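Supplementary notes for students who missed Thursday's class. We covered one full example, reproduced here. Read the sequence, then the structure, then the short commentary at the end.
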Amino acid sequence: MGRTLNFILVDEEGTKIHATVNRPAINLFDSLPEGSWAQISGVCVSSSNWIDCNHFLSTHPYMLVLPSTATISPISPLTDRHFFNFALFEDVMSGFFNIAYPIDLIGTIHIVGKLSPAKNSANAERSIPFTIRDQSGNELYCIAYGRVTEKFSLEWSLIPDGDVRILLSEWRVSASRKMYSGLAENMIVDGGKYCRFYLNPEFPGVGGDAHAMERRDESEMEISAVDDSDALSTA
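Structure (token representation):
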């Protein structure tokens, strides 16, 4: 199988879609920086939105295929809003959350566990567990793996004492403990290949927890310009 390149693209309304690039077109897109805005023309639409049937990259029913004949032009940002879709902790803990889709969460770090195994362990993937809480005291158990582990461990070591907010973007609910034990326990949130995290994040409109942001969104109104061009940002 040839090399492929995958993106999560988002439009100015916050709708995310999985886009894939096959080998002949990789040179056209591999320098596209994360967080940039671009107008992409000549894309193909596919009803297949999966790499693995249990591991979707977005909830969109379709996927974009970016061929070598596509054209791409950088544009000015269409909005400065964030593109996080925060899940409520109680929804994740319910045992009925769809584990096939990525998830965004925001909360306060409660406990950070031990980094393991030792760095000199041969070919062993390192991990670090931690728990996060929302403002209602609901708690989720999380694990960072591989590259995310090293970055998390370093950034955590540089944070001064005190409450630390964390934003998890494109993470995953790996399995419900309730599913296997029959007990109504928290679910495990697992960082995957496309995940990001931000300690004490400073994004416009991001603060509190998902409940607080829901209440704020209900009291605000945004008027957006309408444009039928395919302008997208790389999430």
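Commentary. The chain has five helices and 13 strands. The CA atoms of residues 126 and 146 lie 5 Å apart. If anything here is unclear, bring it to office hours.
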